[in-house]
Amino acid sequence: MDWGLHKIANEVGFTDTDLDVRHVSFNGIQIDNLQVAAKEGNFSVGSVELLYQPADLAEGRVNAISLSNPALQIDLYNFSEWLSKESNKSEDKRTLQEKVAQSLSSPLVRFLRLRNGSIDLTDGTKSVFGSVNLQADMYENLAQVRMDGNLSGMPWSTESTSVLEDSDLFISTRLRLPDLSRLLPFTESIPMIPNELLTEFSKVQIEQGQGSVQWTGRVKEDGIIDQFMEVNSSNVVINILGLSLAVPRSLLFVTPTSSSVWESNLYANLNWGENLKVNGMNIRARMDSGNLALNCRVKALVTGGILPDAELLGLSVDSIDLSTNDEGEITGFKRLDARFSALHLEAGLLNLYDGVVSVEWMGENRFQVELIKANASLPSLGINLQNLSYSGEINLDELPSLSKDQTFTSRAIFIGEDQKIEDVSIGFTVDSSQRVKFSKIELKVEDLECTANPANLAIEWVQGNTGALSVSLMDSQIEMFDGDTYLLKNLGGNLKFSSLDPLETNGTQSLTFDIEVSGREFQNGKVLFEVLPTGEKVIDLAEIEVFGGVVALDRTVLSEAEDSMELRLRASNLISQAILDSFDDLDARMDGNLSGKVSLRKLYDSSWDFYGGFLSLDPTELAHLSLNLDGALTDGLNPEGSEYQNMIMLEKALADLNLDTLKVNFNLLEDGDRVVEMNVIGESMVEGKKITVEYRPKIIGGLEALLQQLDLSKVGPASRNF
Predict the structure, then answer these.
(1) CB 457 within 8 A of CB 430
(2) How far apart are CA 299 and CA 267, in angstroms?
(3) Contact (Cβ atoms closer than 8 angstroms) between residue 378 and residue 348
(4) 8 Å CB contact between 161 and 136
């Protein structure tokens, strides 16, 4: 017996064999201290037991084999060379399907047990070593194998079943890994793995978790078809590029069709601490002859922490383009196109619905993000937006800052129930989570088009004080057009608000500005205002230089009942010649300044009109009027009549009149009509006679009739030189 076993070992390549035959019987044999050695490796067993029936043994089959304390050491380089030689020498022309089918139909061993085994696979530099146990049960057309052990500190267990049904051979295998944190150390210990591949593995470190892999397939000839693989994991924590991601549960299905065609489906939940929570994620992939197609669905995505507070619902990534190198290997993300059902920012402060998004990688950690279309609402402010879009570059290393220009547009914005703003376009950057700077603002309200460019506007939220913010304007410029062009420029101020809802300022605020109307400029504008805790909006002062003087608005409380709102204007030191120059077809010269007061109220049709007031000549010794009426007073009169003589004398006197008094009254008549009445009193020398003049011309109508006589292009700064 001892001599026969040595002979068999030498024939299969084991040049050094040692064993003790301890027991031989009619139906069994026990061998102790079996040791075989070759250049490809060494194998030893503490005890081997074989159980058989004499009839089976004659046919080369045994009932059971039990190996206790086996140890296997393999030199992988020498073993791979030997395996290659044996493969080339093989004259067995049977297919893999035929070989496995024959072994299942008539198994040589029915029961195989391996207890307390050890294994060592080495390439001379690195080695995988550990313990292994095996239990195999083989029946006719059915084989079941169970193994467990620990390799390089990584525990594992596996089950495999092979079934032969007629000519069909089915194989199913499950591998369980109870401690995935040992996966990377195990991978690093595997011999003959290229260092480049290990570098890729090291980018992803699994800190904890459990996992399993189940694979099924059907052997056909020398290939495997109808394959299906399921990868299941739970309680996984992954570290990727310094980011710790928790994956409470994931499930991956892979269906290979051929070596170059496969499909996969991944279902998972994902957490990045307080920064990101992903629920109901499904990633689908298909590889077809080197072309990879990806898409994704996410039920809910919630951000916070270092990211803005947000909730994204119903995310659907329709396509993902990946970048490749010259060899066609996938190197990273390039572009994705996605849709979503709803996005809630800052606990519902801003809501987006039915959005379409594209994201393009710009290199490093920079991405170009475009919200192609969506609808939105700001419930706390009663604002709804239609057909909005967004475009901007985002650098993950700078978040929450956005240093590159961002652009936001909306076709229509509804404020409350009756206010509509159209064609909105906003350019902005984000300095921090508390500060936003606006470079451009464009919008349209009814027939009024408004553009702030440069906007030079910054909004900063007060940290730790919900709702408090400041608005800074730094030489901003706003252009408005409704047929005429109005330019508000050099706009400056630092406005502080204690609250937005309800609106309240932090004391009295100040704005300074210049206004340009149809090419004429009004300078040194100033507004002082305050929004009180009671909700009252108070303009303490509003003034601007007009006609060389100053027009100011007295303290005014803005009321929601606009029909009762009253504006009281004060005019000081207006240059009279500048006013006269602003009227079309008026040939007049005047020396003197005008001051006074005018009250305005809002009418039922939302227009404004005066209901009282005056402008009067400031006291001066130099007041003078030269008015050329060009026959307007004598037109149609009989040259021979006395009335004609009086009117011709009045026209001549008005052409060179030293003023005593000039007053413009804005009168509201009892019947509700309005009239602008002038009272001109002075003296003149006509044909050598001193004439005293009192002239009372009128303009019938209110503020609109007066403005119709005014040429706005002539309104603006005026010289005081007569």
Answers:
(1) no
(2) 11
(3) no
(4) no
Shortest CA distance to 206 belongs to which of 230, 229, 234? Answer: 234
Closest CA to 610 of 663, 664, 561: 664
Q: Is the pLDDT of residue 579 over 60?
A: yes
**3-state SS, residue 97:** helix
| Two structure tokens written together for 184 | 């990377």
Tokens of 120: 């060592």
Largest CA distance in the chain: 166
Q: Which residues contact 153 (CB under 8 A, 6 or more apart)?
A: 130, 182, 185, 186
Record the tokens describing residue 358, joined without a space.
Answer: 């594209």
CA distances from 441 to 164, 370, 474, 579 (A): 74, 19, 14, 34
pLDDT tens-digit map of 425-457: 999 999 887 889 999 999 998 888 999 988 999
Pick the closest to residue 371 from 343, 331, 413 (CA basis).
343
- Other beta carbons within 10 angstroms of residue 380's beta carbon come to 14
Q: How far apart are CA 109 and CA 142, in angstroms?
A: 12
Element (H, E) at 153: none
Cα 544 from Cα 114, distance rounded (Å): 100
The single-letter DSSP state of residue 380 is G
> Is the pLDDT reported for residue 699 higher than 90?
no
Question: In whole angstroms, what is the distance from residue 90 CA to residue 670 CA?
Answer: 123
Please provide residue 691's backbone torsions phi and psi, each rounded to the nearest 5 degrees: -120, 135
Cα(24)–Cα(31) distance, integer angstroms: 9
Mean per-residue pLDDT of the chain? 84
674, with CB counted inside 10 A (0-12, 13-18, 19+), is: buried
Residue with tokens 């703003």: 421
Task: Report the length, in residues, of the chain.
Answer: 722
Identify any residues that bridge with 671 across adjacent strands, giving them in sequence order.
none
Predicted pLDDT at 9: 45
Whether the CB-CB separation of 158 and 176 falls below 8 Å is answered with yes
| Residue where the block lists tokens 């076709």 | 411
The pLDDT tens digits of the residues spanning 222-260 come to 778 888 999 999 999 988 877 788 999 999 999 988 877
Q: How confident is the model at residue 418 (pLDDT cuts 50, 70, 90)?
A: confident
Residues 486, 716 contacting (CB under 8 angstroms): no
Confidence of residue 712 (pLDDT cuts 50, 70, 90): very low
Question: In angstroms, rounded to a whole number, what is the distance separating the alpha carbons of residues 28 and 22?
Answer: 11
d(CA 483, CA 486): 10
User: What's the token pair of residue 18?
Assistant: 């040692």
Q: Residue 340 contacts by C-beta under 8 Å, 6 or more apart in sequence? A: 312, 313, 314, 315, 316, 352, 354, 355, 357
Please give the Cα distance from 359 to 333 (Å, whole number).
Answer: 10
Q: Is 91 exposed, middle or buried (0-12, 13-18, 19+ CB in 10 A)?
A: exposed
Query: From CA 456, how far away is CA 391, in angstroms rounded?
Result: 20
CA distances from 13 to 33, 38, 85, 634 (A): 19, 7, 13, 140
Three-state DSSP class for residue 323:
strand
Helix (H) or strand (E) holding 386: strand 383-395
Cα(647)–Cα(631) distance, integer angstroms: 9
Of 370, 371, 360, 300, which Cα lies nearest the Cα of 333? 360
The yes-or-no verdict on residue 167 having pLDDT over 50 is: yes
540: closest CA among 559, 525, 554?
554
